[in-house]
Amino acid sequence: MALRNRRLAALIFFSAMAVLHSWPLASDPARLARLDNHDAELNTWIVAWVAHILPRDPLDLFEAPILFPEHHSLAFSEHLLVPSAMGAPLLWAGASPVLVYNLLIIAGLALSGWSMYLLMRRWTGSEWAGIIAGLAYAFNAHVLTRFVHLQAQHVEFFPLVLYAFDRVLTDPSTSLMAGGWRHAVLLAAAFVLQSLCGNYLLVFTTYALIVSAAIRWTEIDTINKRVHLFLAGFLSLVVLAPFLWPYYQVNREYGLARTADVVTQYNASWRDYLVTGGRMHFSWWSHRFFEGRTALFPGVTALVVALVALTSHRMIRDPRVRMTIAIGAIGLAFSFGTALPGYAPAHHYLPLLSGLRNVARWGWLPLAAVAVLAGFGTSILEKRWRYAPIALAFLVTVEAIRTPVGFTPVYHPHVGNPVHPLLDFVDD
């Protein structure tokens, strides 16, 4: 019961932090939005479309009423299935697409922080390690500058992927019949759910698992572990195949795969890793790097605490720490795109890479890795100074916060105001 209460308290805490970091969105979620941005318009419409089609004809999910007479027209963008399904009951109950989209932003932030909290609490046994990691993970510079992209806030399943993968390798069960299959199924489920939040996240999570398996290859030392991993991969492929097929067909017909030349204009540079929307850093120095760049600054506090873990001989021997370093490293390397020697042929030949345009977004993986390492570092620091975690939580929040966030009002026809074209279309 005490553990359940702590988990509930943590969920409430991260929900409050989600409200804080997205303020003033929660003050009027039915009217405030980012519909001044075309990506936000499209994503809000997609959320409404998914809720509309799922109970009527789910097999026609990709036959959206756009770009007529093309087939699989939703495959020209992202389907956002999982977050859209989360919001569907509210739309069915009569809530507006704007309200649902905004509530999904807050929910995604809260669940992402909570999920990382649960992971790091399990891995370290420390409540504070979970809190610091959750704060650094859910409210980093990248996420808080992408409110127009709902998928950026819904990364709540990635910590579960890491947990399930680790359990597959460390489960003492000796056979599928002994119960080890449960972790394989959990890994597949977490991977599928994260992949169905966004196509970029599918690619990032896939390569995170590939490098994790490479780093921990010596632990995959029994036939049962290999079978479990194969089972997870097979189940994932079977479930994801119907969602990948429309993209394959659209790409085959229209050649939507990005060439290396297209990717070049979206390469990250060292300057992107100095960009943050956090008001303290932005006003002080980061504004000099901000224009036209992807916000990937991890924060001074998170970096310092992560460094504590990296300089600990005990921590660096932990395979989970080494796995996290590898995940961050591949994301960092790939974020530089064609500026990275050898990336151009990798982009052409490696699976899934040609589907990505904005390669700078690979920088999300280093931010996630820093959050995990910060959790490990916090577990060390709190043993030396009991009040350190409180100070760390305060500093991480102060560095990241950029409220009040700039939202614009949306007018609804039922109150006699001009109708936004998106709402007019949905209401019809």
Please outline what is shown here.
The chain is mainly α and 428 residues long. It has helices spanning 2-21, 38-53, 81-92, 97-124, 127-138, 150-153, 158-170, 181-195, 199-215, 223-254, 260-264, 279-290, 300-310, 313-316, 319-335, 343-349, 364-384, 388-400, 421-427; strands at 32-33, 408-409. Helix 2 (38-53) packs across helix 4 (97-124), helix 4 runs antiparallel to helix 5 and helix 5 (127-138) packs antiparallel against helix 17 (364-384).
Molecular shape: globular
Low-confidence stretches: 414-428
Order of helices and strands: HEHHHHHHHHHHHHHHHHHEH
Q: Number of folding domains?
A: 1
Report the β-strand fraction as a percent range.
Answer: under 5%
Structural class: mainly alpha
Helix run count: 19
Number of strands: 2
Mean pLDDT: 91
Main beta-sheet annotation: 2 strands, antiparallel
Rounded radius of gyration (Å)? 21 Å
Distance separating the two termini = 49 Å
Could you characterize what this model shows?
The chain is an all-alpha fold. It has one domain (2-427). The chain contains 19 helices and two strands. The protein has helices at residues 2-21, 38-53, 81-92, 97-124, 127-138, 150-153, 158-170, 181-195, 199-215, 223-254, 260-264, 279-290, 300-310, 313-316, 319-335, 343-349, 364-384, 388-400, 421-427, and strands at residues 32-33, 408-409. A two-stranded antiparallel ribbon has the order 1-2. The N and C termini lie far apart (49 Å).
